Amino acid sequence: MTQSKTQPQSSKKPEINWPAALMLTLTPLAALILLPIYLWSHSISLSTWCIFALFLAWNGLGITAGYHRLWAHRTYEASWLVRLFLMIGGTMAIQNSVLYWASGHRTHHQHVDDVDKDPYSAKRGFWFSHIGWMLRNFPSSESNYKNAPDLTRDPMVMFQHNHYVPLILLSNFGLPALVGSAVGDFWGVMLMAGLVRLVVSHHVTFFINSLAHMFGSQPYTDENTARDNPWLALVTWGEGYHNFHHIFQYDYRNGVKWWQFDPTKWLILSLSKIGLTRNLKRIPSLTIVHAEVAMKFKRAEQKLSSSAAVYGLDMKYDLEQIRQKFNAEYDAFSETMNEWVKLKEQAFQLKKQAVSDRIGHLEQGLKVELSQIEARVRAHGKNLEAAFNGFALLKS
């Protein structure tokens, strides 16, 4: 008898992970108690609010630009100064070491939604994917660094991993104490930039494991639970475009559209202009458009099938017309993609024959043709939407 993939293999509860359980329960409890007491007799100064915001941003970018896009996915390379800055910010966030975090995240991508292998599978519910997976020693969360040989060879990563506890004490107590003393508001900064910042930072990050797999759109793939959620992007430094990320995990961008809020992307790109980051990985735009349009065709086919079942013979003629338009557009789309494959092969052959004097001219010609194909792929998607808009009006 095969094991169902919607339920974990064992119903026996693993042992409590006491360090994580105590931290994740006591820190929010302390914030809820201490903040009102402090506000009863004190006000929070503008400088303290600014320090709180700066430390929160440092934490957030340490996780998104550092732990996630730099170390877990290797979407770009960075100078030692940038890596040190991001590592300190990530350490302050107390989400374990780079090695543990990145290795676990690679496992998440490899086994996304598998209730037995994904460390924070959304199919085990909001509570589990948000925080529950850290409260007990689940087998899926056991550290296994076989998928991170690049990180075990990184001296900075291994220094942090081997000295993690003293580093989190220095970053979470030493830094706020130092800054608080400097601005003359020791306890205010310790409370806001130390304790409250940590609690906010925790749950904002955890939203990506939970809410970003439950609420939002799926414009690129429906093969997993990941969603694009622009509201989450506003509070997670651009990580809310999670459907894009799960299909194109090696792109340094999450918000790939120019208008999408992704400050992590902007930071990485800006640093590349002054030589502090390099080798930024980007998925070709035509590959992205292909995924979008392919999803539109998939949903169109699903709508046609469901409409045929609902409306039956009453709409048979109209549905047949829509299906003919769908099939014609899909055939055109397939032909366009075949041309794209041929052009990619030409580009590959061109690089092999780089000794040719005409390579610059030929490359430019290929770029023009690829641009034309991208425009045609976008047009296929618009034509499909127009056909179904007409169908919606017809039904009404």
What is the element layout, followed by pairings?
Elements: H1 18-41, H2 46-72, E1 77-78, H3 80-92, H4 98-110, H5 126-135, H6 149-152, H7 155-162, H8 164-183, H9 186-209, H10 230-235, H11 242-247, H12 263-273, E2 277-278, H13 285-311, H14 316-352, H15 359-395
Antiparallel strand pairs: 1-2
Helix pairs in contact: 1-9, 2-3, 2-4, 2-9, 3-8, 8-9, 13-14, 13-15, 14-15
Write up what this structure looks like.
This protein is an all-alpha fold. It has two domains: 18-278, no CATH class; 285-395, no CATH class. The protein contains 15 helices and two strands.
Question: Characteristics of this structure?
Answer:
396 residues; mainly alpha; 2 domains; two-stranded antiparallel sheet; 15 helices; 67% helix; globular
Strand content: under 5%
Helix content: 55-70%
Q: Which regions have little confidence, pLDDT < 50, spanning 5+ residues?
A: 1-7, 310-317, 355-359
Mean pLDDT: 85
Write a concise synopsis of the structure shown.
It contains 15 helices and 2 strands. The protein is mainly alpha-helical.
